[in-house]
Structure formats: C-alpha cells, structure tokens
Specification:
The protein is an alpha/beta fold and 406 residues long. The chain has two domains: 3-182, Rossmann fold; 191-285 and 309-405, 3-Layer(aba) Sandwich (Rossmann fold). It is 34% helix and 24% strand. The protein has helices at 23-33, 44-49, 52-59, 72-75, 77-83, 94-101, 108-115, 128-132, 134-145, 171-182, 216-227, 255-266, 315-322, 338-348, 390-404, and strands spanning 10-15, 37-42, 86-92, 120-124, 149-150, 154-157, 163-167, 191-196, 201-204, 207-209, 231-236, 248-251, 271-274, 281-283, 309-311, 327-334, 353-358, 370-377, 382-389. It has an eight-stranded mixed β-sheet with strand order 12-11-8-13-16-17-18-19, with helices on both faces. It has a five-stranded parallel β-sheet with strand order 2-1-3-4-5, with helices on both faces. The chain is elongated. It starts with 9 loop residues before the first strand and ends with a helix. 42% of the residues are buried. It binds ligand PMT. Ligand PMT is lined by residues 213-218, 255, 274-278, 280, 312, 314-316, 330-333, 345, 357, 359, 365-367.
C-alpha cells in the first residue's frame, strides 16, 4: 500500500463511542508509523471505551475531548481543522453519522468537522440492525452526497452477539481508504483492465507447467489504479495475495482462460495493462488421471518422460490486433538484451507502452517487493524508473499513462 503519501500529513482521527474504539488505537499507530502527524478528537462516549492517555502517548499530541477543556487541543480545534489534510472517523456511531448529516455542532468532533475543507473518511460501525436501519442509511446517503468517503463495515460476529454487517474494517483497510481519499483522481471515469500472476498449464490433474510470478506487480498496479478513480478489473492467475479493495476480480488458471477473460473485457476498457506472466506453451495432451511413474507402469522400465507442448495464444498480440481506442501496455520480462527485446515486443504486439524489467536478478522481477523498470512509449519517449517498491513503480507508471489519456 502506498502509505508514503501520509508522511508529514496532518490527519485528524475522530473516535466515537463504540466497542470498536479500541481498533482506533492500532489505526493511529499505523498512521504515525507512516509518518503522519495525527491529532485525535474523542467524543465523551468514546472516553467510556478507551482512555485518552493511550491516544495522547501514541500520537505525541494533546487529545481533544471537548470544546471547553483548557488543554491546547480544545483551544486550537479550529486551527486543527484548517491545518488538516484529511479526517478519519473510526468508529463512527449512528449518532455521529446523524449529526454529521444534519450539520450539527454539538460536540468538539462535529464542530471541528464543520470547519474542515479536506477529505473526510467515515467508518460506520454498529449493531447490524442499527446499520440497516433506514434512517441511518438515509444519513449515510446524505454524507456521501456531501462528499464524505464512507467505508462499508465488514460482516461477521459482532460484540452484541449478532452476525451481519457492522464490524469496523481492519485498520489496514481503513488506512488504504485514507490513502485512496488523498489520491488524485486522474483515472476517474476510465475502465482499467489489469492482468497479474502466472498461468498454470495442466499436465495432469495434479501437475502443471508455470513460472515464478507472484502477482505483486500486477496487484500493485490494479490497487493504484483504483485509488486514482479507475473502475478496475483484475484478471488474475493463481497467487497468494489479498485481492485489492473495490476491484472486480476474475480468477483464471490457464492461458486459454486468461485469453477468454481479457478478450471479453477488451472493448469496454480504456486502459489495458498486461502484467501477467503467461505461459507461452501448454502440454498438448493434458491427462485426465495422474500420470504414473514409469516403473509402476507395465512394460519395460524407462527413466525419461517427454512432454509435447503446443503454443498458447499471445493474448496481448490479439488485443493489439483488436485495439481501437484503448491504451495498451505490456511488460517485457527479460534476462538479457532488455531494450532490444522490449522494443520488438512493443512493435509486434501493437502496444502504446512496454515496461521492460529484468528477471532472474535480485531486487527486481519475479517475487520481489521491488522492481526496476524502463518504460518505452510508442512516441519514442523513454522513462527510467529506478529500483523501488512495486507500489511506487505502479504509481510512476500510472502517472505516465494518465497524462497520455485524452
Ligand atoms: O508477479 P511478480 O512476481 O510481481 O513479477 C512481476 C513480473 C516479472 C511477472 C512482471 O513485472 C512482468 O514482467 N510481467 C510480464 C511477464 C511476461 O510474460 O513477459 P513476456 O516478455 O513473456 O511477455 C510480454 C507481454 O506479452 C506481457 O505483457 C505478457 O503478459 C504478454 N503475453 C505473453 C505471452 C502470451 N502468451 N500472452 C501474453 O499476453
């Protein structure tokens, strides 16, 4: 997740009185770890659940708990509002959402909120029936209409022993939504199709041919594109990664399945970024039952096995042939002659951009959290992206693409 953007940002963390108030402590810790200056505002009911001291010590700032206290936080609450880069309310109670929806200024938190001009992220958390209550839903619609970013609560067993929606999302997810709220929406209105991960080509029901792609690069691009306002579809081979938030996920196994999924989404897409490491070949004749070791099979003993492979469709090349308005981008994974091979692939596949990266070296390519990429554009522009986290590579690459979209 792109948390570097929180460095030196002034964030107000509003904590309301719900059982999930304890999770706000972990959220505060994550925000300060990312370098944010966090100022905490607690309602009187929040103080019934978690002590002010915890927030004061972890934020290294006075905590605002009311309008008429004499500490600096209460005196400076309007200053805090005007200095804020973002506000996060977690947990937000039904009472808070109602007050916010109707512009009430009946405590320090709601008063401060009326004075902020920055993005506001609201994380409702309460009993399922309260959450589903029509009045609450109406109030959520109002605050969303007014521009707040509302993070839907998770589902599960709640503290009140009911099961359903109402759980405060995990702090990591709230942090992710905070980053999204602060991100420039330069892909708003664009449909972005990303592929990620390896493909698996069946040999028999228990074995396959594949490669070392972890999916990290493609998932980072999909997540970054969503934060920039894109409507993202991620066609993914089998990986061990959490799906990014608010993205349509299409799971596939083989290159043939990936081809079907990509071509089905091609027409509606504005941007296509093919990061997946597609197997160029597949076993010609995958067996329907497990291939037995030769010494268990009848007949003379043999100590070798030959697999006949046939070529898979080149999905990107097919997309290049069909492309009309789309911005089409590919990746070139090379072990040598990076530039020459990448340029050849851009030409052959009719791409607008190709990102060339070395594989089989430390700190780049397959599996690593880092990548070092060289971008080549059809218009001849070349951009070097030095070795950095794949999340940052994703942003640098999308910066370039976004400026080229009409
Ligand atoms: O997943 P990670 O562990 O994070 O690693 C990231 C990565 C190294 C996989 C990624 O950065 C990368 O380089 N992806 C492209 C891998 C690849 O298949 O490269 P290629 O040079 O063989 O293919 C060129 C392009 O054609 C790629 O965009 C590929 O998706 C596409 N292709 C290839 C073959 C095929 N049959 N169909 C395709 O669409």
């Amino acid at each position: 997740m792109q948390t570097m953007m929180l460095k030196n940002k002034n964030i107000i963390l509003g904590v309301c009185g719900g059982i999930a108030a304890y999770k706000a402590v972990e959220l505060l810790r994550l925000m300060t770890k990312a370098g944010a200056n966090v100022r905490v505002v607690m309602t009187q009911s929040a103080l019934e659940f978690v002590g002010e001291t915890t927030f004061r010590v972890l934020s290294e700032n006075e905590v605002c708990t009311g309008l008429f206290n004499t500490n600096e936080a209460s005196v400076r609450h309007i200053e805090w509002a005007s200095e804020a880069d973002a506000v996060v309310i977690a947990p937000a109670t039904a009472n808070f959402v109602a007050n916010m929806a109707h512009g009430m200024a009946n405590d320090a938190l709601t008063t401060m909120l009326l004075a902020v001009t920055c993005p506001v992220v609201v994380c409702p958390s309460m009993n399922t029936h309260m959450y589903e209550n029509l009045a609450l839903q109406r109030n959520i619609d109002i605050i969303e209409g007014d521009g707040a970013f509302v993070v839907e609560p998770g589902s599960g067993e709640l503290a009140c022993k009911t099961t359903g929606a109402g759980r405060l999302p995990e702090p990591e997810l709230i942090l992710d939504r905070l980053v999204a709220a602060l991100t420039r929406k330069d892909l708003k209105g664009k449909k972005v199709l990303v592929t990620a991960g390896p493909t698996r080509e069946a040999i028999d029901p228990v074995r396959y041919v594949s490669n070392h792609s972890s999916g990290k690069m493609g998932y980072a691009i999909a997540a970054a594109a969503e934060k920039r306002g894109g409507a993202v579809t991620l066609v993914t081979g089998p990986v061990n990664l959490e799906p990014p938030f608010a993205i349509e996920i299409v799971k596939v196994e083989s290159a043939l399945e990936m081809a079907d999924a990509v071509l089905a989404h091609l027409d509606e897409s504005d941007v296509v970024i093919k990061v997946a490491a597609v197997a160029d070949y597949r076993p010609q004749d995958p067996k329907t039952s497990k291939i037995k070791k030769k010494d268990q099979a009848p007949g003379p003993k043999q100590n070798s096995l030959t697999l006949e492979l046939v070529e898979n469709p080149d999905i990107l090349r097919l997309a290049g042939e069909k492309k009309r308005h789309q911005f089409l981008a590919g990746f070139a994974a090379e072990t040598d002659d990076l530039e020459a091979n990448a340029l050849l692939k851009m030409e052959k596949k009719n791409l607008d951009m190709i990102a060339a990266n070395l594989v089989g070296v430390e700190g780049s390519g397959f599996g690593s959290d880092y990548n070092k990429v060289k971008l080549f554009f059809r218009d001849g522009t070349v951009r070097d992206i030095p070795s950095m986290e794949k999340e940052r590579v994703a942003d640098a690459l999308l910066d370039e693409i976004a400026t080229r979209l009409t």
